[in-house]
Each structure stands twice: as C-alpha cells, then as structure tokens.
Amino acid sequence: MKNHAGSRKRLMKMKVSKRIDSIEESGTVKLTPVINRLREQGKKIINLAVGEPDFKTPKEIIKRTKEALDFNKTRYDAAAGLDLLREKIAGNYDCKKENVIITNGSKQALYSTFQVILDSGDEVVILNPYWVTFTEQVKLAGGEPVIVDTTGHRPDIELIKKNITKKTKAVIINSPNNPTGAVYTKQELEKIANLVIKHNLFVVSDETYDELIYDDKKHFRISDFSEKLKKQTISVNSFSKIYSMTGFRTGFAAADEKIIDKMRILQSHLCGNVCTFAQYGALAAFDLKKKYYIRIRKELEEKRDYAYRRAKELFGCVKPEGAFYLFAELSENISSERFAKDLLKMHNVCVVPGEVFGSPGHIRISFAASMDDIKKGFDRIKKASG
Ligand code: GLU
Hints:
Layout: H1 2-13, H2 18-21, H3 31-40, E1 46-47, H4 59-70, H5 83-92, E2 100-103, H6 105-117, E3 123-128, H7 132-140, E4 144-149, H8 157-162, E5 168-174, H9 186-198, E6 202-206, H10 227-232, E7 233-238, E8 251-254, H11 257-270, H12 276-283, H13 290-314, E9 316-317, E10 325-329, H14 336-347, E11 349-350, E12 352-353, E13 362-366, H15 371-385
C-alpha cells in the first residue's frame, strides 16, 4: 500500500521535457481528426484546410505497391532507402544515390536535417509566412527560429541580411510556398544564394510543390546554381502532393554525401527505414508520362483561377503562382482564429487561420479540393464575411 502511494506521488512529480513543452501541435494536421469527428456526427464539412489533393493516386503506383506486397516486400530494408529509388531521384537532382535518403515524407527529411546541422542555440532564418512545422522542428533540434517578414510574400533580401548573426546556421526557403503560393524568381534566389555563400550558411530548400506551378512559371533549384551551393543545400521533397500519395509517407532529402550519411545514421535509430512496399510504389512515379503532370497542373490552375477570383472579391489576396493555397488577408479588425472557428461552426467550412503560419489576420484556403467543394466553400465563406 505504502509503495503504491509512493509511486503515485513520484509519477505526479514526473515532468515531460522542456523541449517538448516548447512546441505546439501542428495547426494543419490537428484539423483532420476534427473534420472526421464532425463528419461522423453527420455534418457536411467542406475541407479547404488540409493540403491534400482530391485526385486519385495514379493506378500505376497502386499496382506496383500491390505487386510489392504480393512479392513479400514487407521486411526491413536499408535505412537510406531502396537503392533503385535513390538512383531515380539522384537522376532528377543531378547527383549520385549516395546524395539521397528516403524519408517518411518531407517532414522527416526536415526533422533529420535540423538534427544533423544544428547545435544548441544555432539560429535559422525562416521567412514569414512559413509552413507551421519549420519553427517547431528547429526548436526540437535545439535551434532558434529567427522569423523574417516578407513583402507581399516576396523575400526581402535587406531584411534577411539584417537578421544574419554570428549564430546563424541556415536559411529555410520554400518555393513554391506553403501557405502563400509564391514562386521565387531566379533573381530572388540568386540574391539569397549570394548571402548564403558570403556567410557560409546551409540552405534548407523545401521543394515539395516544385511540380505544381502555373502560368508557365518555372521552378529554380538553388542547389543547381553552383557546386558550392550544391554542397551547402539540403533539398527536401515529397511524393505526397503531385502523386496524391499523402498516406504513403514517402519523401526524401538530397544533399552532400556527408550530410546524407549522418541522416542515415540518425534514421537507423529513428525509424529504421520507410515502409518498404510504399517505396516500391513510389518507383512507379518515374514511369508516368509528361501528360500526367500537364493534366494535374491544368486542373489545379483552373481551381486556382476560380478560387482567386472569388477570394479577391472578399479579401486582400496575392495570386498564388504555385502550390495549392491562397493566403487571404482579412479586414483589419477581424481575428483570423475567430473567423476560422465561426466558419467551421456555423457554415461547415474548414480553413486554416494565419496564426498557424506566423501571420495573424489571414486565412489559408486550399484549392486542392473538388471544384464543387471549392464553389460551395466560397459561397459559404461569402455568407460568413457578409
Ligand atoms: N503540408 C500539408 C499542409 O500544410 C499537410 C499537413 C501538414 O503536414 O502540415 O496542409
């Protein structure tokens, strides 16, 4: 009896780490179970929140995944990923398979990157608005996020310069951008590249949306600019969005061999390897024809055009050039958290409040939903704003 009481007391005294206490739950991921619960209650929720395409995973990818299961590709494999898959990715990134690691989505590629490059107190420049996970993963690695505002969603080089200190270790860039849809021009990236070279920093380049670009704009990879930059850049990417494979959790990082090797060692303790049959499925993505990409872009561009037309009637907003988000500015005295909550409660439409991306006063509207949902969603948003 005495012992039990003692251990209860000890348990109550046990505390979780300061590190985990310092981070917030992902404001995007946490919405999925909320929407699911409301749907189970019979509510017809329109989901314009989570960045998940509504088109089906290509048949070829499903087929190859099933075949992998039939051939018992159900065991452990190398921590860095299937050689075949690494080689295919290396072909796209103009590097060797030793420069590539397969990760559980781009999320884990980022997590491992920060664990590998940051020491306690190192600073990382993050451009605002930013994807919710960047700041938290930097903190998890003991780093300090340094938030630098953009101007009309464009990187402000002078401001970035001002925020570089002796402690700066890396700059994160994310083009096409989540949540704004901005696609950085070659000139903008060159200016960032010069800074990075001058101060000897890492660039963490999140290229998850690189295939989703509209109006014949082009995605430039900062690592392609020079051999030096290639050594200093960790590019992360994902199969999730362009192939609608969000549940496969298959992404990757491409970087200098030394960095990738450290990530591999970390991965050997963290998760072993990415789901083996998911990786075989991902291999089929390399057999898809050009017309696949053209169709997806065309469909999303139409949705972008529609969403932008409706959004600008109601809010301040910049036309997204890529990805599938629209970052709308509410009028001055409206709290975006309140607006998003009321929109969900009273009009059954889910969007993400700007606070999640470091920019209160905004809402992120995803146009990756079906056209029907986008139309109905905007009708309801209009009612809520009226
Ligand atoms: N990346 C997507 C989004 O921003 C999926 C959720 C997440 O991982 O944040 O909505």
